[in-house]
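ugh finaly. both done.
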Amino acid sequence: MKRVLVRVLCGLSLVAFCIPTDMAHAQKKAPVVQTIDVLSQPFNITSSTNARFVLHADDAVLTDRNDRLEFQLHRRLSTREALRSIANGEATSSVTDTVFLRLSRIARDSDGNLTATVPMLQATNNQVSLLINQDGVYPITIRITDDVSGKAIASVLTFINRRTITSSDQSVQATTFVSLTHTPSLSASGKFEVTSELRAKAQRFIDYLKKNSRAATVYVQPEIIAALATSTDPLDVSLIEGIRTQLRTRSITTATFAPTDVSMMANAGLGDEFISQLRLGESTLTKYLPAINIVRNTWVANNIVDERGLALLHKAGITGLILLHPAQDSAKFQAPHAILARPDGSSQQYMSVISVEAEVAQQLAVEPLTLPAAYRAAAELLMERDDLVASGISPDVIRLVIASDANSVESFNALDLVSKAVATAPGIKMTDMTIAQTVSSDTPAIHFVELSPNNGAAIRNSLAYSRVQLNAVLSMFGKDDVSSDSLTYLLGLAGSTIATSPAEYSNGLNAQLAKLRAAVSVTTPREVTLSGRKSVIRLQVRNDSKVDLTVVVRLSSVKLYLEEPVRTITLPAGSTTEVKIPGTTRTNGRFTIGIKVSTPEGGVDVVPYKTITAKVNAIAGLGQLISITLLLVLIAWWWSHSRKSRAEGSANEGAGTTVSHQ
C-alpha cells in the first residue's frame, strides 16, 4: 500500500514539474497565426535564381531561434478565378515543394528584419531549392512554424510569376492610369487656397513620373494646374515647374476645368455648357502647361455614361473613351472588360472604349497596400492576359489598364508596385492609351444605359442663369484681361462632381458679377434745360472697380433727335468719364429722356434703367423775332405819342398869341 502511495506521489510530482514547462512553452507561442510582412521579394522569375526575401515579424514569434522559416510552393494556378479563390481564402492549393531554414541561421538587417535567400530552379530540384518548371503564376506561403508542434505561428501568402523569355511571346498592351485630382482649391469667393495635402499629392505625382519613365496614360485636373500656376508661394512655383518638366515627354487627356458628369450635363440640357467647360479646361492646360501634348479627342469617364452622354461626347469631338471603375456601373459588356470595345449603336460605333480593371482598382484602393497584395493584383492582370490568349483572343485587342479607386498620396505607391511588376513581365508592352484606338463594326460592343440616374435637375436652372450673366459681364472686360479668369473658374466648379456644394459656386459667381455691375454708376441732374434748338446731353459715368470696363450707353427720347444715341465706351478703372451726346429739339415743353447702360453682349443692365426730364424754354429764332417785333411796336408807339404831344403843344402856343393881340 505504501509502495502504491509513493508511486502516486511521484507521479503527481512529475506532473507538477512538467506543467510549468509546457505552459511556459505555450505562452512563448502566439495563440493565433500572425501576419508576416513581406518588405521585399522577386516577382518575375525568368531564369534560375537565388530569390532574396526581406521579412518582418513581431518579436513575439521570433523568441525561439529553433523555430523554422518555411517557404511552401503551391501548384501553378490555372485561371484567374482560381487565383481569386486561393487569395481570398475560399480554397487551398496543394504544396509541391518546400524549403525551410532555422531562425538561428537567418541573417537580419540593421532594422532587425529577416533576410532569407531561397534558390528557385527551373530544372532539377534539390532539398534546398524550389522547383518551378512551368510558366505561370505560383502562390507561395511563407510561414514561421513551431519547432516542437510544427504548427504555424505566423504566415503570409504571396505570388511569383515564372516566365521564359522567347522571341515567340505575343505582347499585350498594358498601361498605368496616373491621375492628379483633388478637392477644389478654388473657394466660392474666387480665391485659390492650396493645401498641404494637395502639395504632397502633386509632389508624389512628379516623383512617380520621374521614377517611372515607361509609358502611361495621364490625366491632370486643370483646376489644380491653375491653382499652382497662379500661386506666388515658392513651393507652388516649384511644383508647377516640376509638373511641366515631367509632362514634356508625355501626353495627357483632355478634361473639363474640374471633373464633370457628361451624362448629367446632357440630361440637364446643358450640352453647350459642357463643351464650354471642356474648352476652358483645354485652354487652362494650354496656358499653364505650354508645349504639353493634349489629346483632345480622349475623354476619361468617372461617372455612369448613358446614351445622351455618348451623343454629347460625340458632338464635342471625342473619339476615345476611358472608363474608370465607377463609370462601368450599369454598362453591359459583350466581351471581357480587358478587350478593346466600342459603344453599340450607329452614331458612336467608331468611338473606342478602354476599361480599367475594376477589381484590381478596388484592391489598390486598400491603404496601405502590402507587397503581397500588390503582387496579387499584378498576378491577376497577367492571368487575365493568359486566360484571354488561351481562349483564342488576339493579343492585339487586349488592353490591360492598371488604376486605383483611391485618390490619395498613397495611391501612387500602389500604382508604382503593380505597374513595375506588370511592366517587367515578359509578354507585356506598356503603352500610352490617351491616343484613341482603332475600332470597327466587328469590335465587341458595350451597351450603355439609356438614362443616367443623375438628371442634373439640381443644377440646371442655376447653371444656365449664371452662364448668361457671366457671358454678359465677360464682354465688359478687355480681351487680354486675366482678372476675369476667376469668374469662369467659378462656373467651372458650379457644375462639377468634386464640389461638395456646387450651388455655393453659382451663388459666389452671381455675387461677384453683381458687384462688378454695381461698380458702374451714372451721374446726371433729374432735369436739364435745353435753351436752343441744338443742345448737348452730358452724362457722367463712373467706374469704381479696379479694372477697365466696357459698357454700352443708350439714350432715347420721343421728342428729341439724338446723334449717335448708342455709344460703346471703355471706362478706365477708378475714374469718371463724361459722355456728350448732341441732340436737336423738335418742340417746346417738357419731355423725358431714357438712359440705359448695359453689357456689350447680352444687353444685361449694368446700371438700372433711369429717366431724366428735358425742359425747353423757347425755340431759338422765334423768340428773337417776337422780341424785335415788340420793340418796334414800342418804338412806334413812342414816336406816335411823341409827335402827338408836340403837335398839341404847338396848337396851344398859337392860340395864346392871338388872344394877346386883342
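ok and the 2nd:
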Amino acid sequence: MEKKRIIGICLGRIQEYFQNDIVHSIIRSAHDKNCKVLIFNAFSDFYMNDAYDAGEKHVFDLIDYDRLDGLIVMGESIHNDELRNGIIENARRKNVYTVCIDKHTEGCYNISFNYRTAFEAMVEHIISVHGCKVINLVAGMKNNAFSDERIDCCREIMKKHGLELDERRIMYGDFWADPTSRAFDEFMQSGLSLPDVFICCNDSMAITICSKLKECGLAVPGDVLVTGFDGILEEKYHIPRLTTAKQDVELAGQKAVEAIAAHLEGWNPGDGCVIDHKVQLAHSCGCKKIDYREATGQISPLFKLADGDNTYDSYMHELNNAASDAENLDILGDKIIYHSAMFGYYYFGVCMNEDYSNMSEDYESLISGVSPRVSDGRKLILCERLIGTDYSPVYGDGFMHLEEAMEELDVFLFWSIHFRGKIAGHGVMGISTGLDGRVPNDDIRHLLKYTRNLNHVLELYNSKAVMKKVINRLNELYVHDHTGLFNRRGFYGEINRQISESLNSGEDRYLIIVSVDLDGLKYINDTFGHAEGDVAIKTVADALISIWGEHEVCSRFGGDEFTVASICGCDPEACGNVLVDRIKAFMESFNTSSGKPYKVEASFGIHWDKLDENTKIDTIIKAADDKMYVDKSEHHCRRSRNTSR
C-alpha cells in the first residue's frame, strides 16, 4: 500500500466558521489525494500581541518540517507578519512546498478571494433590481484595506448609475457589533433621512443593524433593506436571512491540495488562483419573502446546539471537580483521559515541558534564595490514549504512541498549553471526519473552550503543587536552622514527639541531652573574619548531622550553642559518651584536612534522666549546660596557660 503523504495546516482560530470550513475542505481533498493532515492551530489571531498570544504561538514550534510534503498557511488568520513569515521561511528552508490562503506572500502558491466582484454585484443588485438611491454604507475600520476596497466599489457602482455616496452616510462599524451599534446611534441622531438600504461590509455588522432597526420599530425589508457580506454561521439562524456573499471555501481547500499534489508529481501549478464569492439573495433585500413558519425549522437545530453546549459544560464541570481532587499526576492524567474520551477522540495526548509538577521552583527560590534548577529537557507525557487504550504518565522525549496512532488515523490537531506566562506543554488529538469509515468526531466548535478549560485544570493542579511545596518549605524554615539542624522550635516539637512514642511503648527509656558549645568563635571572627566564623559554625553543625540517627534530635539554639537529644534503652552514660566521641572525631578529621589556620573545637556537657510522665526536658538541658560550662572553663584555662608560655 502506498505510503500517505502528509500535509500541514497552520492557522489561528480554527473554532471560527470560515477557518473551520476551509480546514474541513482541505481534509476532504487530502483524503481524495491519499494524504494525511496535521493541523497546527492557535486559538488566537495575534491581533493583541499579549501574553496569551505569546503562549499560543508556540504551537508552531511543534511543526516537524522534515516530515511534511506540503504546508498550507491560512494567512489572514495569523495577524502577525513576523510569525507568519517565519513559518513560511522555515518551510522554504526545508524545501516544503507552501500554499498561502487569503494573504498574498512571495514564494508561495497564493489562493486569494475576489471580494471586489462579489461586493460590486451586491451593490449592483441593490440599485438595479431594488431601485435604491439613498445608500448607507456600513464599513469596517478606517484605513483598512478590505473596508476601503468596498467603499470604492460602492462609489464606482453608484457613480455608474448617476448616484453619489454621501460621506456622511459612511458608518464605520469596525467589523464588530458594538462599534456598529454606536455608529447606528450616531447616524440616527444626525438628522439625516433613513436610507433605502444599509449595505454592510460584513454579516456581523448587518445583523447588528437589523437589531437596531427593530429597536426603532422599523422592519427589514419592509421599511429598509439590509445586506451583509461573508456568510457567517450566525447568519444561517438569523431572521430575516441576509442577502450576503460567501467565500467558496470548498473550492479554496480543493485548490490548495491540488497545488501541493501537482508540485509533488512534478507539475508546475503556477503562482496561484483567485476564487470568486457566491452571492446569496435572501430575505433582507426582499428577494425572498419571509415565511415565519421557517422559524420552526431553525429552532430545532438551535435547540440541539444549546443542548450540546449544556452537555459539554457539564463535562467540563465534572473534569474541573475531578482534577481539583487529583492527589498525584497519575490520577490527574486518568481524569483528563476519561473526560477526553467522552468526546470520542481516537487519539488524545498531553505532553508537558520539563517536570511539570516542579514548575514551582522559581517560587521556592523566593523563599530559599536558591536559584531554580535548570531543566534537563525531559518531557512528561501526562496522559495518552489511543483508540481505547490508556497509558500512565511517563517521562520521555515526546509522545510514546503518536507514530502508532498515525498509522491508524489521518487527521491530527496540535495546540499549545500555557499559563502564567509559561509554556507548559502541548496537546494533540486524532480526529475523523468519517471519510475513513469511523464515526465522525470532528466537531471542534467547543475546542477553544475545551483547551482553555484544560489549561485551567493543569494550572490549578500546578498551583496546588506550588502551594504544597511552598508550605512544606515554609514549615521546614519554621523548624530548621540554615545549617540543616533543627532550630529551638523544631527541636522541642520533634523531641516531644519521640518522648511521647517512647512512653507509649511501655519500655524503659532514657533521655540524654548533650550540650555543645563552639570554642573560640569570637577569636575566629576577630582574627580571620566572620566568613570563617560561619565555616566553624557549619563544621559543628555537620558534625552533629553526621551522628544524627533515628533516635537523635540535633539542633542549634543560636549563635555557637548546639543541643543534641537522644533516647536510648541501655546505659545512658555510655551512649552519651559515644555521641560526644563521634562529634569530636568529625571535628578532628576536619582540622587535619581543612588547612585552616585555626582549629574547630567545642565544649560538651552530658546529662540524662529516665523517661516518665514527669520528665522535664528543660531541667535536663539546664544540667547538661552547667556541665558544658565547666568543660568550657577548663578549655579556657588550658588555652590561657598555653598562651602565657
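summary for the 2nd one i guess: The mean pLDDT is 88.
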